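User: Please run a holo structure prediction.
Assistant: Happy to. Please share the sequence and the ligand.
User: Here you go; the ligand is acetyl coenzyme *A.
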Amino acid sequence: MGITIRGTGKFVPEKILTNADLEKMVETSDEWITTRTGIHQRHLAAADVATSDLAYEAAKQALDMAGIKPEELDLITVATVTPDMGFPNTAALVQKKLKAQKCVCFDLEAACSGLLYSIEVAHSLLLANKKYRKALVIGAEKLSSIVDWTDRGTCVLFGDGAAALVLESSDEIEGDFYIAGKLAADGNYDNILRLPAGGSAMPASHETVDQHLHCIKMAGQETFKLAVNAMVSACKEVLEISGVEPENVAWIIPHQANHRIISAVAQRLTISDDRVYSNIERYGNTSSASIGICLDELNRAGKLKKGDVVLLTAFGGGLTWGAELIRW
Ligand code: ACO
């Protein structure tokens, strides 16, 4: 039995917020945002669009590429920090929109590492149990709904978007796309990147709204330093486990949080710039969607050849981080 990535898809809303637009909202400049982050613009969803709507659009594309009907799916998982609501889970809401009747649905929350965590979980289920044959793995975020638009330290960073992968296991498929993975977490750093209110620890109240506690809080510099070290060490570990040399990696796709983080990670792994995929200038940080959006762009541009080894790495709130080596 083998397991493969049968299809990919992405969706970003039409509306674009440029750095020039942000200059009118907070005390910032295009020059600061561009040099410090690499971001030129981000896409924002309309008020009446939810994460499941973004996920649904990306899912349709991935299923179409895979040639798989929604009713054939055994599993839908959505990685997100911006679920439509507390419950039902966003995956179930995507299931409803797709009319995918017979599948198991759950969300997975590992912040910006969410898609890597989801790939590992879905791949493990497909490997372990023949009742799971076709899985839809989604990373989707409406981060604009949890951004504090008065905080220049965070509001310039994030954007909305979704990405989807269709995984299939079958006796007819040869090999396994998944070569090696290393996932990690350290809850001791829970306070450097968080959305404090709205959960059981701090339910919503007038005070939490007045104090903007339903918005992303981040200690930027501390996060930056930890991100580079964590991603480099996870990448080194998966390369070592699998016996793959950095020069044999066709592409590295790091989570799109900051172009300086992306460059630092690639440099320390001795992966040349022409093999680093980045689109942060167009989308900003879309959290759990970012790696999947990159993968879909590479795939649809015909830049992934059969057999290419691709290194995915992510870092996010939790803290959570990891790396996965996949074969196209
Ligand atoms: N415009 C202008 N000035 C700004 C802005 C802005 N948008 N934001 C901050 N500044 C100022 C600060 O106030 C500070 O001014 P001061 O020196 O007078 O105090 C100065 O710029 C430098 O601030 P730093 O925070 O030190 O800037 P830094 O170079 O670290 O860049 C950034 C900040 C972009 C946030 C960076 O630290 C970063 O990318 N961190 C990592 C983010 C990340 O990886 N997040 C993880 C994923 S997110 C998730 O999981 C949901």
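The two ends are 17 Å apart (CA to CA).
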